[in-house]
Amino acid sequence: AIAIVSPVWPAHNLIQNCRVSHYAGGWCTAIFFVAKIPESQPSPNEINVMVRNNEVFLDAPDLTRGAEGAYGGGDMQNVIFQNNYSWKATCGFNIDTGTPRNLVMENNTFSNCSGVGITIRAIQSQYYMRNVIIKNNTISLLPIGNVTYGTSIGSDHSPYPDDGTCTDVHITGNTFYCSAPIPKNAAAYSIRVYDLTRLTVVNNSIEKTIPAQLLQGFHDLTLSGNVDLGGNPFPGLQTIPVLPPSKAPVIPLPR
Fold first, then answer.
1. pLDDT tens-digit profile of 17-56?
2. Neighbouring-strand partners of residue 172
3. For 138-145, what is the mean pLDDT?
4. Could you please report the per-residue DSSP string of the chain?
5. How far apart are CA 69 and CA 90, in angstroms?
6. Model-level pTM?
7. Strands 166-172 and 186-194: what pairing?
8. ∠ Cα 31 32 33 (to 5°)
9. Residue 252 class from Cβ within 10 Å (0-12 exposed, 13-18 middle, 19+ buried)?
10. Tell me, what's the pLDDT at 170?
11. How far apart are CA 53 and CA 108, in angstroms?
């Protein structure tokens, strides 16, 4: 429906107040954008793309037939993604190509996701992620079969290197719940993360029937303040063995 590619830096693109209704999907994304910064500008202090106040409504009669994405793209660098909404997308937000760097996702609502709310993956060795903040979002899951995730974030590099390629991911203050009962032939997880350096998962509110998956390969893992929807300590978030402290440098976010 909408596609924007930023070929030059700085781009100062703004995507706001767009509404995609009756979106039928079919292995494509309603609002897709690429925001790459040249390697000669590794940490500029300017926002490259702002995406805010948009809405995407899925209108597919069969939610199992394809990967209907609401928002997504690649090489999202120096991007703020805030106050956006999706309804019944298979995937609310997806990055599986390119290198997300200095990405802030805040105050978004991904409602009735039948696949995953937010997925960010470094799927090839030349890709990485750095400084990804996911905060104060609301993700509701609509399990209809197989496995549904609130977030699925990690590095597919094998073996996982502690070299700063996938580092500084913060999942804070989000709310995860199921909008329908989980079928017997399905499973649902709130937070799925794997193979990251300096991962922070704090102060999230999670329906206690949807546990978290913290898989292998964490350097410097911080877990605290996560509760169920009743305010009790969340039982499905277990402390797992953590790898030795990272030697990767900390690179600050743009101002």
1. 999 887 765 667 888 888 777 666 655 567 778 899 999 9
2. 135, 202
3. 91
4. -EEEEE-SSS--EEEES-EEEEE--SSSEEEEEEE---TTSSS-SS--EEEES-EEEE--S-TTSS--EEEEEE--EEEEEES-EEES-SEEEEEEES--EEEEEES-EEEEESSEEEEEEE-STT--EEEEEEES-EEEE---SEEEEEEEEEE--SSPP-SSSEEEEEEES-EEEESSPPPTTEEEEEEEEESEEEEEEES-EE-TTS--EE-S-EEEEEEE--B-TTSSBPTT------BSPP-PPP-PPP-
5. 6
6. 0.88
7. unpaired
8. 125
9. exposed
10. 95
11. 9
245 or 255, greater pLDDT = 245
- Token couple for 251: 């690179």
∠ Cα 66 101 162 (to 5°): 100
The two structure tokens encoding residue 33: 């954008």
Token digits of residue 236: 């499905």
Q: Tokens for 41?
A: 């500008």
Q: Which pLDDT tens digit goes with each residue over 96-136?
A: 877 888 899 999 999 999 899 999 988 766 778 889 999 99
